[in-house]
Queue: 3 jobs
Job 1
Amino acid sequence: MKRINNLFIFSISLFIALLIFIWITTPKIHKEEAKLNEVVENVTTNEDVKNLKTKYPDIYGKIHFNSLPNINYPVVMTDNPKTYLYSDLDGKYNGMGVPFVYPKKEENSDFKVVYAHAFTSKKPYMFTDLYKYLDIDFYNKDPFFYIKTEHADKKYLIIGGFQIDTAKDKFYFHKDFFRNEDEKQRWYEEVKKRTPFKIDRQVDFENEVVTLVTCTTDTVGGSKRIVVIGENIN
């Protein structure tokens, strides 16, 4: 009985500590997100992206979803995945980081992977809401996302999505290089098998494919990931 009481007290203490942490960090998170949103709030043309690159050379573009309005962020390209994991565009510490393409790619490359954090504190931040695209009803309403670069306005049709535990599952979902067409097709067949509903589309691998990756919010710092994959259709 004493052990049960101690566990109960520990659980309550942990919950209170979490509430205090959220209460302390929420204003800072709001401020960090506002700063990122401000960077792209006036980006409406390809020329705007080009001008933004003069200040931030790593800028690739701006990503947004019509169905997930909280996802409206700059995207950078980097050869070091740690650069923007917990830093803002000026290189200063930022718990949210910046969504980034890794490894760095040419804009017209066939496959890219974009990484971003996921966490909730009164509202969803960064790529938290990607999990909604694992629901067929949500998917059917608006299966698209968009990336604006200095050269193009890109529209992506979501062609797959799933959750994966990277500690237990060795599927190389974040593949960005394929030796041949057969390898691409095998990768996509695996994506289709893992997607919780059927998407009636045969991917044209002549088009660019972008994979969006974030963590789940149920295990902070854990190995579970949400993966959403889109094909450029314009």
Note: The first helix runs from residue 2 to 40.
Job 2
Amino acid sequence: MSNEIVKFSNQFNNVALKKFDAVHLDVLMAIASRVREKGTATVEFSFEELRGLMRLRKNLTNKQLADKIVQTNARLLALNYMFEDSGKIIQFALFTKFVTDPQEATLAVGVNEEFAFLLNDLTSQFTRFELAEFADLKSKYAKEFYRRAKQYRSSGIWKISRDEFCRLLGVSDSTAKSTANLNRVVLKTIAEECGPLLGLKIERQYVKRRLSGFVFTFARETPPVIDARPVEARKTDGDGKGHWTSVAGYGEVFTTTELFDVTAARDHFDGTVEAGECRFCAFDARNREHHARNAGMLF
């Protein structure tokens, strides 16, 4: 299966996914990878496809997987979301359509128009990561830490208070109150799973000998530089004459009217599609200079 990308607004990282286990998180991120930039259109999955996206290590029956899917949406509905601009707190109904069919082994999902901004038209202030890397992590704490670290991928540093860290990662009260338990159950797990992957270092901060917060540092991500090479132009059904087309928030691509597609152009700029498979890179070598790069906004 191709390397799927998860991409959502940074605001989603402020939502604490309480009572989610590792499988629930994998279900959610697998869905997010496929509904992004689809607006509110219904997206259908087969259970076989979902298993592949989740890289399931357990042999779940269709009934067991269906139960996990339904539980995932039920847990989302139990959450509250606060809009940053108005301070309103509303029920977190991310999906208006969520139909699970164990008999047909299918799932149909439609994103709530009110929350579509979390997964669509993202040109800045978003989190982006590879679904396979996320799914390969075993612990819910490692997964929840990983997506927050990816929010700060360009700086390579995340500073956070102890209380907010525990809230965001859904740490139980009994574990959060005990420094020993927090170290053993949460931080040790994160260090073991995310350490080699991210080059992670954890600095603990104290106030009057009490653990008050953390400074996490990890490898910074920089956009890959794609060398411009001669590429044979792709023939189109039009007149074959190219022109520069502006993509809001990204830049310009040299294309034709027949070839241009705004979603494909965004994938070109953020590197979701490999350069070797990119329609714009194949059409004109000049486009390769800007593949997976957007003046530092995307990485």
Note: Residues 1-136 form a domain with the Arc Repressor Mutant, subunit A fold (CATH 1.10.10.10).
Job 3
Amino acid sequence: MANKRKLKWTVKKKATVQQQKQRHTHEFLGSTKLAEQGEDRHNHRFAGVTGQAIPKGNSHVHVIRTNTDFVDHFHRVRRTTGPAIPVGNGKHVHFVKGTTTLIDGHVHNFNFATLIDKPLV
């Protein structure tokens, strides 16, 4: 009978979690502009939730990081929003404009506004 060795694993946890106040986020959704010609002409859709608010000057911005839908391929959407745009009742949105990553020999342009923060509050 072979000797069985028991392995003892020691896991050390260092709890160094600092409580930080979370900042608001926004939902977003959009479609890219058309790219390519002929039978290859197409666009993509995307959706997600922004990163937390990042103070900037007298306003703030958010980071957008998502992928488009898959139409034989997908693109990455990486951008920082513009500053807050007031829309009334203490609410705001952010404008986003940019270009996707280069995949399959082409890119797509996009522009959209985030949805308002806290729509039911």
Note: Residues 27-113 form one domain.
